[in-house]
Structure formats: structure tokens, C-alpha cells
Amino acid sequence: MPRLSFLAALLLAAVPTFAQKAKPTENLVQYAKPLVGTSRMGHTYPGATVPFGMVQLSPDTDTIGYELNGKYNPRVYEYCAGYQYADKTIVGFSHTHFSGTGHSDLGDFLVMPTIGPLQLNPGTADQPERGFRSRFSHQNEVAEPAYYRVKLDDHDILAELTASNRVGMHQYTFPQSEQAHIILDLTAGIYNYPDKNVWTFVRVENDTLVTGYRQTHGWARTRTQYFAMSFSKPFVSYGSRNLSKKQVYRGFWGRFDQSQNFPELAGEQLRLFFDFKTTAGEKVKVKMALSGVSTEGALRNMRAEIPGWDFEAVKRAGQAQWQQELGKVVVESPKRVDKENFYTAMYHAALSPTTYMDVDGQYRGLDQNIHRAEGFTNYTTFSLWDTYRALHPLYNLLQPRRNADMVQSMLAHYDQSTLHMLPIWSHYANENWCMIGYHSVPVVVDAVLKGVVPASQAQRALDACVATAHQPRFDGISFYEQLGYVPEDKSGSSVSKTLEYAYDDWCIAQLARKLGKMDIEAEFSKRAQNWQNVYDSRINFMRPRLADGSFRPRFDVLSTHDQGFIEGNAWNYSLYVPQDPAALIAKMGGEKKFLPHLDSLFTMHLPDKFFAETEDITRDGIIGNYVHGNEPAHHVAYLYNWTQQPYKTQARVRMILPKMYRPTPDGLGGNDDCGQMSAWYIFSALGFYPVAPGSPEYALGSPAVYGATINLENGNTFRITVKNQSDKNVYVKEARLNGQKLTRPFLQYADVVKGGELVFTMTGNH
Questions:
Q1: Is the pLDDT of residue 7 over 80?
Q2: Which domains are seen in the chain, by residue range?
């Protein structure tokens, strides 16, 4: 049978019907723009990766250190993903990156090609010629899913990158040179500081293969990453520079000259170089395979995933994976910008969590021992304070098998935890304890209740959730259990913690009820009411309380600093009771008082001084006092559905979408936060949103697409048809599910996964 070209294969697609899965009729990869969010606050990276890939091979544009004069350097925050669009130089291409985070790590194994006299320092942004970095122009830069290309102007080298799951592949087109080099910088890292490298070990196995590892002490306290690096042609010579500080004990290795052509190297700070002679236009290729287990595992990954040297074949395979991923939802719109926004969001929503195991199933566990994943893919990079809200609910809908594996990964983490806790924010066999709440709980519960996780795992999941919620060492839980709230004088961000614990507890109660564990259900249903303990009815705001039971007198409802909240203020967080909006509305005095509060959130002005001390909140992500660039208020626009004015949800959603999302480098209104911002877009553009994961229903909004077909994993399709769609027709005149008019602005998860059709009829009047 003749082989089809990639484009021809894409065009052989069926016409959407309910009897047959709708398939994309065009190349959707063209609409996904990896450069979106690389400017300012988005903190995304533009490099090459495949869906949920272990390798994220991407350019780093500066080497800003975490520390400056013994203190935190605020500028490092700009480089959470290693790349800032405004920069003019590239230092090199490293193999691990976070997407959209507000703190960082990684940046492993930076590679940079150069020509001319060897330079083993990175130089500076204003004088790149003093080091191995290079100037570049965005005119000579291309970023696509699974492919990145840039011209390194100072070296006259065309750099191209692609990747499989566990292997990054470089292709460097050199000019003619007797002094061509490829530098491997093992000192480089994101959120780097001089002592971050604990140890580095390298073996030059032969003239085309190098193996090694490095261990770092950063956001992940004990992180060990192994590599195998292979060259498409032999290097003629090689060498190294050990930048480690002078050691007290050095043994007898001093008898060797380890700087030139020495095959075994070790130290905290190593840079290596490999010398070549190149002809004009010659392509030198490099493969870098990763493993959390061993160099043998890295080699096994390389041989399994990219055994040869066909760069274009690897690129095609990667983009075919992206086509399949993006094709889970086929949207219709006459406007290209709509498709670019949507498929860029789909792209960003499939970057993490990331695979964390070798091709043979081995992975390093939280206990730093080697485990084997039996019957599931092990994942890492769990930014749960962000992603429990919409990203994991999106996975339950679009790829439940993968989300089931993610839950299994969380349960494995729990089994390996000395504190008997599910993940809080974990990556690379480490818990970094970032952010608040125990938000693996709603991810686990939502997946179990929706049938994504097998019923045989439900009791194990409940036990892990309960143990996590009872861990007294963690973040004010002992006070929370004793007092019914977290006191601000004992644990900061106390109101946020109380509210988020109460929601997580509600999730546990739902699972306990499902399993008939009525004692646990009663306990956690009671805990779920703890949000009321930080509500000050005198002022109609959530407010920090002290251990003696009094409300803290010093209080500012607009400030985001030192007011008992994290990445938000009282105005936003006072609306955080996603498990029971009706009770919140009643508590605030009914709709008469609630609606003006909710309205004002979007219309009032929040002066800069109220978020000046919070680096995660900037003007980019604010509409009125609604902070879309941070997650605590992501559900808020949908709260009108619990009032007599659901049309305001429709108007607010359609207002937020174009303001916070554009297909440009500065097109994200805040950190993408491992896909949460993008998941909000996907759900909202389709016309519904999971206000409370753990609940069986979605809240309806206002679809921004002109139509869509969701290709479900179970073989069904769910069709969204939008009549009278336009930029002005933002209100839903009526919604019909399979011909039946919906009388409430809600949609059941079960109705979606059964397949069918939801028809919105739009109007310009409410």
C-alpha cells in the first residue's frame, strides 16, 4: 500500500455525523502557535515537544540568576520558561522546561553550536560576542508544534529542533569552518544559583556518544537527571572546563589533564565542548535522550524512539501526534483568529503533566528508589493548585485514559510519601510543597465519580484523600481541624487555606457518599461548611481570623498583600465557595446584595498599589478587580447562573475571552499555569465550564465558536451547534440538548459523554 504524505493523510477525513466520529478536515497544527505567551507574563516556551512529552527542547534567552547580592533577584521571575520574546540573544537550547509557571526549575543539559575560537563562557546580553551566545531575529525564527527553527546570527548557524517523547533532536546547519564546536553546558539551569548543581558526572563513551547525569538542589530538593547524547558524525577532539569551587579533598585525579580529551569527568560545574570540521551547509545532528533512572535507561529510550538520523521523519511523527491531539475537538469559525486561539489553547493544555518513566516502565519515585509502572504511564509536573480547576476536568472529557494514569501516578506518590499525602505540587520524584490546599483531592475524586478511574481503585483513592486531609504537619491543618478555620496569626494566607480546604473536603464527602462511607461523608460534609467561619457578615467579606476567634482588625478588602489571601484579594476570594454558590449567595444577603458585589468585581478599578507587592498579579491579567491572570476567580463569571440573571455570565465570558487571549506573543493575560489558563479558554469557548470539579454538572456560558465536534475517547461524538453566532450576539436565547430545551443553565457530564448535540441559539438581547 503506498504511503500517504502527512498533509494527504490529514485531508482524508470524514464528514461529521453522529454515527461516525468527526475527524479534522484540515491540518490543525498550523493554528497552534507556541510563541503565544512567550512575552511578559505568559511564561510559556516556544521549543519542540510532543503531547505530554518528557523532553521540552527549547531556547533559553538569558542566564538570569535566582540570587543577587545574597537576596532573591526579582528579574529571574521573567525566565520561568527560560525564554522571553523581548530578548535579542539565545544562550543555548536546553531539554526540560515548565510551561506557564510562576516559579521554576529545570533547564537541563544546555547545548549550543558555535564557530571560531572556542569560548566557554555564555557572554552577556549586551555583548554576546564575548561568549558562546548569539544574537537572533524573530524574522528568522519559526515555532510550530514539535518543531523550532532559528538562525544564530553571530555564528551563521541554522538551528532546528524536534523531539519524541523522551529524546530531543537537534539539526545544526554549519558554514564552512575548521573551528566548529558544540558546547554542552551542565552548569546552566533555570532559576539557577551557584550551588544548585550538587554533582555532575560525564563519560565520553566514544567519538559519537556521551553519557552522564547531574543532580540539582532547587525547587525539587533532590533531582537526578540522566542523559545520553549522540552525534551524527565523530568529533575530532573534545574537552572540558570544571568551574567548581576549590574542593578540600580532590583525591589523586590531579595526575590527569582532564581538560582535553579525557573520557571521565565529575564535579559540580562542568562545561564540555566537542570540536568538528564542517563544510558549507553541512548538517550536524545531535540526539539527547533523558531518563530519571540511569544512563542505560536514557540509551534505551534513544534506541526505542529515535534509532536513526532522519530529522524530518521525527518532525513529521511529532506533528502527527499533535494533529491527533488537536483533533479531539474540531471547531468551526470563519475567523482564523478563533482557530488560532482555540488550538493554541489545546496545544498548551497538552504540555503537562509530563511523562516520567522510561520506555520499559521504570521511573524514580518520591522515595528516590526505582519503581516500575505496572499498567499505567507515570506522570510528573503536577501544578495542582492551578490545574484541578479546569485542566484535569478537561482531561476527564477529552482523554480519560490519560487522566486515569495521572491519578494512578498521584496514588503512587501517596504510597511513596513518608507523610502519607497525595501530591501538592510535585515534579521529578520530588514534592516541592508550593501553593496551598490539597488539590490532588478534587482531581482524584472527580475522576473516580465520573468513572474515569476504575471502581476497584475507589476505596484506595478515598483512603489517600482522607489521610491527606488529616495530615497535621501540613500548612495549618492542625488548627483547621481544631478551630474550623486556619488562624492568620498561626499560618499565613489563612482565609485562602480555609476556603480551599473546605472545597477539597466537600469533594471527599462526595466520594465517601458514593462508596457508602457515611461516617466519612458526615465528617467531611461538616468540614465543607468551614468557609462560613471566615465570613464576616458585618462587612460581607471573607476575612482573616485570629486564634482567639476574633477577626483581625487590620484589613483591606482590595490589597493582595498580607491580608490572609494568596494571589488574590478579599473581593475575589469572597466568591470562592464553588461547592455551594447558592449557600454563599444566601449568606451574603441574597441576590439583592450578592449581584452588586459580583457586578462590581468586573467594573470597578483596582489601583496598581493593591497588587504592587505581588509578582504573580500584573495589569495584564486584570479586568476591573477581576484577576483572570490568577486562578482563584476562574469560576466567578459563571456564578450568575445561580441567580436570576444568568445572561450576565454569558456577557462576562464573551468579554473575558478576547481581552485575555490573543494569538500573539503577549496574548496571555497571566501565567498559563501548566495549561489551566488554556483549559479555561477551551471550555468557555465551547460554552460550558466545570465550576466545581467533583460535581456531575457544568455551568453553561456563551460559546465563542461557530460550531464544534468533540471526538470522545469512547467512540461517541458530542456536537455543539451555534445558531445566529456573531460578536454581538453574546446572549443565549435558548439551549437544546438532543432537541429538548434546557430549563436550567447547566449541562450534565453524563449527557456529554453519551454523545449527542447541544444547540445554542444566540441573540443580541438578554
A1: no
A2: 29-325 (2.70.98.10)
